[in-house]
From TrEMBL, chain A:
Similarity field: Belongs to the ABC transporter superfamily.
Keyword Zinc applies: no
Protein name from the UniProt record: Glycine/betaine ABC transporter ATP-binding protein
PROSITE patterns given in the database record: ABC_TRANSPORTER_1 (PS00211), ABC_TRANSPORTER_2 (PS50893)
Keywords assigned by UniProt, alphabetized: ATP-binding, Nucleotide-binding, Transport
GO molecular function: ATP binding
Signal sequence annotation: none
Pfam families cross-referenced by the UniProt entry: ABC_tran (PF00005)
Keyword Transport carried by entry: yes
ABC transporter domain residues: 30-266
TrEMBL record, chain B:
Domain of life from the UniProt record: Bacteria
Signal peptide residue numbers: 1-19
Official protein name in the record: Glycine/betaine-binding protein
CDD domains associated with the record: PBP2_BCP_2 (cd13643)
Keyword field: Signal
Matching Pfam families: OpuAC (PF04069)
InterPro entries linked: ABC_Gly_betaine_transp_sub-bd
UniProtKB/TrEMBL annotation, chain C:
Family according to the record: Belongs to the binding-protein-dependent transport system permease family.
Protein name per Swiss-Prot or TrEMBL: Glycine/betaine ABC transporter permease
CDD domains: TM_PBP2 (cd06261)
Region annotation (Disordered) ranges: 1-20
Ranges of compositional bias, category Pro residues: 8-20
Domain of life, source organism: Bacteria
Length: 356, 326, 653
């Protein structure tokens, strides 16, 4: 071990009186509503385990109330977990003293908030430098550093503004810059863009992707927006009622949902843009010609359309030079066609519809 | 938490710095002078005299003349402290009052503050004779000649009913701080009356004027010297005759108020260190008419206390020059 | 119509579900059956037990003697008991010292210096407008001829406010941060704010004697609750996410407090300062009773002489001071950090104005020039005399109507009913309106009044308060509704209410005394003037706070204005209305007590007499406690204002 940037094992967070006693008791398996009725406690995070690799963008996705915001706060003990293990870069966070914890927050993990959490009485540059200030850094140095970060997030020239003079998107850039200013190993995002307008949200997502490319930090990203999760996440954890239902790459989630809940979630995802050929190829039928164009198994279905259209032979899907199956034009069209009503796991009945 | 501890610490430090051995109330006798005093402290090197101002105009007349003389003849600064009678005595203990210029009896307070606590001393008579009693407007005495005997009051109780007297006759009293036995008298003389407090001297005066002008029945507590007797005719009710000691137990009083020889009380400190101002207070003596003329000017002729005092001083040089310290 | 009670899943969205027509009538009958039966029971019991278990007043109660003895003990040991030597007397000394210091400082500035400083602070807080208001306000005080008394009042106010803030702000921060502290502090503050100011003069006098120190402490007690409350609120209201952001960056608790919580709470805390000052100023006349120098002395003296003009002028001076302090602190609360240049301009202007004022001090006379002063007392009195002379019949009629029609009958009932019946009735009523806890507290308070041997006087006070509150609430409601419905009316009413709210409560006694001579009705009129503005304002605000969309929806359904008012606005403003009633009653109590100075009698008189007469001390002290109990009782009864505990809310849950 030790290679994971973040490792979470059996994490629990239960709010309410005598929360500690519930874990391990039969009550722990109750549905949240029942638990609350019986004990007055609310289980926000229930027995969650996952690992985040260094440099990875790990997305936690769930509806509101699913416990995802509590989970991310548990990572730096902004909310004290009730039980479980928590390792950041191999170090046990739960065992840290207040001072060690402060050090962790000051230098290694920082966070971006949904509602920004900027200090309205401070100028932008002082907001960005806040983390450096509480570390005890001198004014000139921290301002210089904050200036550099501001240009990194595209806010040069706004150093002396006050937060309320900026638009929402720009305010969140300040929040982002503040988190980046301390040069942390891990960045935590708690639904950072859900308060923003759709267009600005798209810009900001692009910004995160760009930053990730440039600075290569490990990121844990909380969202309730599936398209955002699919766009940003290398791996996605889907949470429901405090527990993780499934962890996987976007393809795995769309292609093989673990249960009805996840399937329902990903139902409207344009599969052809997420799934690769691997998910729809089949063994060649007897007599089928095998001299069609060859594509790697990782090719997204959508990208295979031109090849399929350009040839009347089935496409040969190869993985590392080895043939894993074939995909015909009909198969591809079936996958690309937007589905109106689909059963959870698609035994895609290749019915003919008017649009096809 | 930390903050509170800090504050506690600061206070403790302050205490420690002040002195060891505790603080007595007289220690600050000169604390907190008023703006007027501090503002021209330099101008009046002779010092500051704090005269209590009790809430009736006769008292204010005395104080006005004394203050005028202290300021203009002796060069003192006078600070007037508006207070009721009994708190004024307390003021002599706390250092907020130097002089009570018209004291009505108060044997109990004399015992406490002069004999026991030794914070005050007597400074002689003002020359004014004080009378307290119950009065009706003259027209009532003419219309009901026997009303002036207290024994007949119950017969007329209905006349004095008001909305405030709860079905009984109303006996109108003044300021709650005044010397009064009225509640006990009503009870002990078995009168069908209720004491209702008008709240102030002015309210009594207003009631007396209305009762005379509008021929409204009125039975009220009042006193001499008072300028009103020059304007409105009031007739005193005869209560059981006062004899020495009949009013010693305030709960059992069933006799008239005693004749008062109004006198002056000063704080011990002022008596010791008051210099010429103290001598002036000690020598001060005048008649009821003197007081009434000044009070009348203050109340009815629109004069300020200072103007009224000035007028009297200019007209009565011989009198006040006799008071001046040699 | 659905005949069978078909229960379907409740629709997800209707919070205040409208009563269902059919079975609701029966339910409503059931709902009113209880109270109706209660009323009948009380009336029947009253008829049966009238005149029994009454507690007539007795001046000789053992408790009063005991309290007198306690007073005598304190008096005798003031200079020997360690509590006094090492604690109480030091507090007295320290506070007196503070007052002397502040007062000396203000006097040393001289009048030009003080006006300059005020203008400078105004400039600093809110620019030239506020600077002008500050300068004009303080100069106005001089023009009225009350400069010196005003300086004393200002000094007393500033000393008391300083102490209030020194204690209140840290306590408020603590309470804002800790729910446990808040739970302890809140009820104490409740009581402090309900307490009629009169009631704690006796204990303060006993501990600290008369003089500015006592006055400062009394003022401080009254002025501190808003400082604590608003600071706590401000600290609590700091957005959690901002604090979290700070913590997520590894800030220590202290760093978060100093760099995040306090700066973010600062503006609100300034409002607390503002409220504290307002509260302190309203105590000015009252503390004149215990030998505090200042404008209050002139007010009280004028009151004793029934001289309306002479009282109005210092009253106006207090209002001027109040306006200046209010505007300066209010704009300080609103101020935003500007750039470096703006800051330079602000501080530069402050320095220039202050320096100019101070520089003028030696050049000009030490006392405010007499030739600048204007005399307004005479003309005011002429008007009052005229009214007195001409409206006599009308005012007398009003007085008698209220006294014979309302006060006397109610008082007869309350004093002739057995004490247990009154207590039980209060218990039932409070239980019904505000829940069981409130009911028990209210009943316990009444039992306390009985135990203090002040039942009869308590009932007399209660009578006046009930009648006065009734009139106050009716008038306030009418004005508030009118103001909420007509912008034009509201615009006209607002300045009147503003002025009425800043005037020291004592000044209301005067016009009342002038018009109605002395008695309970005068106190009622005064409390009317005192409390109506607040009630009207709360009603208006409550009605205006009803969301426009709801009103729009009601209008679009074809409601008339009247229907909108009765079916939408008033029900939705329920909490504001209850709060208005609550405030109206508490304020009325405070004023009725002060009304003792003009012959309203009862408990207020006991307190006044306790201050003024040695042998009445015990009774006065007990009366102060009884007043607190009455205040708490009245507050609890009307506490339904909290809304949460209202029994009606359960209807459809």
């Amino acid at each position: 071990m030790g290679t994971a940037a973040i490792e979470v094992r059996g994490l629990w967070k239960i709010f309410g009186p005598k929360a500690g006693r519930i874990i391990g008791s039969p009550d722990a398996d109750l549905e949240p509503a029942q638990l609350r009725a019986k004990t007055g406690c609310t289980a926000a995070v229930r027995d969650v385990s996952f690992q985040v690799r260094p440099g990875e963008v790990f997305v936690v996705m769930g509806l509101s109330g699913s416990g995802k915001s509590t989970l991310v706060r548990c990572l730096t003990r902004l909310i004290e977990p009730t039980a479980g293990e928590l390792l950041i870069d191999g170090q046990d966070v739960c065992a840290m003293s207040a001072r060690q914890l402060r050090d962790l927050r000051r230098h290694r993990v920082s966070m971006v908030f949904q509602h920004f959490g900027l200090l309205p009485h401070r100028r932008v540059v002082d907001n960005v430098a806040y983390g450096l200030e509480i570390q005890g850094m001198g004014k000139a140095e921290r301002h210089e550093k904050a200036g550099r970060i501001l240009s990194l997030v595209g806010l040069e020239g706004h150093e002396d503004s006050y937060p309320e003079q900026l638009s929402g998107g720009m305010q969140q850039r300040v929040g982002l810059a503040r988190a980046l200013a301390v040069d942390p190993e891990v960045l935590l995002f708690d639904e950072p863009f859900s308060a923003l307008d759709p267009l600005i949200r798209r810009d900001m997502q692009a910004e995160v992707i760009r930053l990730h490319r440039e600075v290569g930090k490990t990121m844990v990203f909380i969202t309730h927006d599936l398209s955002e999760a699919l766009k940003l996440g290398e791996r996605i954890a889907i949470m429901r009622a405090g527990a993780i239902v499934q962890v996987g790459t976007p393809e795995e989630l769309v292609g093989a949902p673990a249960d009805d809940y996840v399937a329902d979630f990903v139902r409207d995802v344009p599969r052809s843009q997420v799934l690769s050929l691997r998910w729809i190829c089949r063994d060649p039928e007897p007599g089928e010609p095998l001299d069609g164009p060859e594509l790697p198994a990782g090719t997204v279905i959508h990208d295979a359309v031109p090849a399929a259209m350009g040839s009347d032979r089935p496409i040969r899907v190869v993985d590392g030079g080895e043939l894993v199956g074939v995909v015909s034009r009909v198969d591809i069209l079936g996958a690309v066609r937007p589905r109106t009503e689909a059963p959870p796991v698609p035994p895609v009945s290749a019915g003919v519809s008017g649009e096809a | 938490m930390k903050k509170l501890r800090l504050i506690a610490g600061v206070i403790a430090l302050g205490l420690a710095a002040n002195a060891c051995g505790g603080a007595k109330v007289e220690d600050d006798s000169n604390a907190a002078p008023s703006a007027s005093a501090a503002g021209s402290a330099a101008a009046s090197a002779a010092g500051t005299v704090k005269i209590a101002i009790n809430p009736w105009v006769g008292y204010e007349a005395d104080a006005a003349v004394l203050a005028y003389l202290m300021e203009h003849e002796l060069g003192y600064k006078v600070e007037k402290v508006t207070l009721a009678e009994e708190p004024s005595w307390q003021g002599m203990e706390s250092g907020d009052v130097d002089v009570v210029i018209e004291n009505w009896g108060h044997e109990d307070l004399k015992k406490k503050y002069i004999e026991e606590k030794k914070v005050a001393v007597e400074a002689g008579s003002t020359g004014n004779k004080g009378v307290i009693g119950w009065y009706v407007p003259e027209w009532m005495a003419q219309k009901y000649p026997d009303i002036t005997d207290y024994k007949n009051l119950n017969k007329y109780a209905d006349l004095f009913k008001t909305s405030e007297s709860g079905g009984k006759g109303q006996l109108l009293d003044g300021d709650p701080s005044y010397v009064t036995n009225d509640e006990a008298l009503v009870k002990n003389l078995k009168l069908d009356y209720k004491v209702v407090y008008a709240g102030s001297e002015a309210a009594l005066i207003k009631a007396a004027k209305q009762a005379t002008d509008q021929k409204k029945p009125l039975l009220m507590y009042f006193y001499e010297p008072q300028w009103l007797f020059n304007q409105v005719k009031l007739v005193k009710i005869n209560l059981p005759v006062w004899e020495e000691g009949c009013d010693s137990d305030p709960k059992k009083v069933a006799c008239d108020y005693p004749p008062y020889d109004l006198d002056k009380i000063v704080s011990k400190k002022f008596a010791d260190t008051g210099g010429k101002a103290f001598d002036l207070v000690k020598n001060f003596q005048w008649t009821n008419d003197d007081q009434n003329s000044v009070a009348d000017d203050m109340t009815n002729n629109g004069m300020s206390a200072e103007d009224a005092a000035k007028k009297w001083v200019e007209a009565n040089a011989a009198k006040w020059q006799a008071w001046m310290p040699k | 119509m659905v005949s069978a009670p078909v229960r379907t899943a409740p629709p997800p969205m209707p919070p205040p579900a409208p009563p269902v027509p059919g079975p609701a009538r029966a339910r409503r009958l059931v709902r009113w059956a209880g109270p109706a039966a209660g009323v009948v029971a009380v009336v029947a019991l009253y008829a049966a037990f009238r005149g029994t278990a009454v507690l007539p007043h007795d001046d000789d109660a053992a408790l009063f003697h005991w309290l007198n003895d306690a007073r005598d003990w304190v008096d005798a040991n003031r200079n020997s008991s360690p509590i006094f030597l090492y604690v109480v007397n030091y507090i007295r000394l320290g506070v007196a010292e503070l007052y002397t210091l502040v007062q000396g400082g203000l006097v040393a500035l001289g009048w030009p210096g003080l006006i300059g400083l005020a203008a400078g602070l105004g400039w600093l807080a809110g620019g030239w407008r506020i600077a002008l208001v500050a300068a004009a306000g303080f100069a106005g005080v001089g023009v009225l001829g009350f400069w010196e008394a005003s300086v004393d009042t200002l000094a007393l106010t500033l000393s008391a406010v300083t102490l209030s803030l020194l204690i209140g702000i840290p306590l408020g921060i603590w309470a804002g941060r800790s729910a446990r502290v808040r739970r302890i502090v809140t009820p104490v503050l409740d009581v402090m704010q309900i307490m009629p100011t009169f009631s704690y003069l006796s204990p303060i006098l006993l501990l600290f004697l008369i003089g500015p120190a006592s006055a400062t402490i009394a003022t401080m007690i009254y002025a501190m609750p808003p400082a604590i409350r608003i600071t706590a609120l401000a600290v609590q209201r700091v957005p959690g996410v901002t604090v979290e952001a700070s913590e997520s960056l590894g800030a220590t608790g202290l760093q978060t407090l100093l760099k995040v919580r306090l700066p973010l709470a600062l503006n609100t805390i300034m409002l607390g300062v503002n409220q504290t000052i307002a509260a302190a100023l309203s105590m000015v006349p009252l503390v004149a009773l215990i030998a505090a120098p200042g404008l209050g002395v002139d007010l009280i003296r004028a009151l004793a002489r029934v001289n309306v003009g002479a009282a109005l002028v210092p009253g106006v001076a207090i209002v001027l001071i109040a306006i200046v302090l209010d505007r300066v602190t209010r704009s300080a609360a609103r101020r935003r950090e500007g750039g470096r240049r703006a800051r330079a301009v602000r501080w530069g202007g402050f320095a220039v104005l202050t320096a100019a004022g101070i520089a003028l001090t030696p050049a000009l006379a030490t006392e405010f020039p007499e030739q600048w002063q204007v005399q307004v007392v005479r003309p005011i009195n002429d008007v009052v005399d005229w009214i007195e002379g001409h409206w006599y019949v009308f005012t007398g009629f009003l007085n008698d109507t209220v006294a014979y029609g309302l006060l006397n009958p109610l008082q007869d009932v309350l004093t002739s009913a057995p004490w247990w019946l009154v207590t039980a009735a209060v218990l039932a009523f409070a239980w019904r309106v505000s829940g069981p806890a409130a009911g028990l507290v209210a009943a316990a308070c009444l039992v306390g009044v009985a135990a203090l041997h002040l039942w009869e006087h308590g009932m007399e006070t209660l009578t006046i308060v009930l009648v006065a509150s009734l009139i106050t609430i009716a008038v306030g409601l009418a004005l508030g509704v009118a103001a909420a419905r007509s912008r034009w009316f509201a615009a006209g009413l607002r300045p009147v209410l503003d002025a009425a709210q800043t005037m020291p409560s004592f000044s209301y006694l005067l016009p009342a005394v002038a018009l109605f001579s002395n008695g309970r009705f005068t106190a009622i009129v005064a409390s009317l003037i005192y409390a109506v503005p607040v009630v009207a304002r709360l009603v208006e605000d409550g009605l205006r706070a009803v969301p426009a969309t709801v009103i729009e929806a009601a209008r679009s359904a074809g409601s008339t204005d009247r229907q909108v008012l009765w079916k939408v606005q008033l029900p939705m403003a329920r909490n504001s209305l209850l709060l208005a009633a609550n405030q109206g009653i508490v304020m009325t109590l405070a004023m009725v007590v002060i009304g003792a100075l003009v012959g309203a009698g009862a408990l207020g008189y006991d307190v006044v007499a306790g201050i003024a007469q040695q042998e009445d001390y015990g009774k006065g002290f007990a009366a102060g406690v009884a007043l607190v109990l009455l205040g708490v009782m009245l507050d609890r009864i009307t506490q339904g204002a909290n809304g949460r505990r209202s029994p009606h809310k359960k209807r459809n849950a």
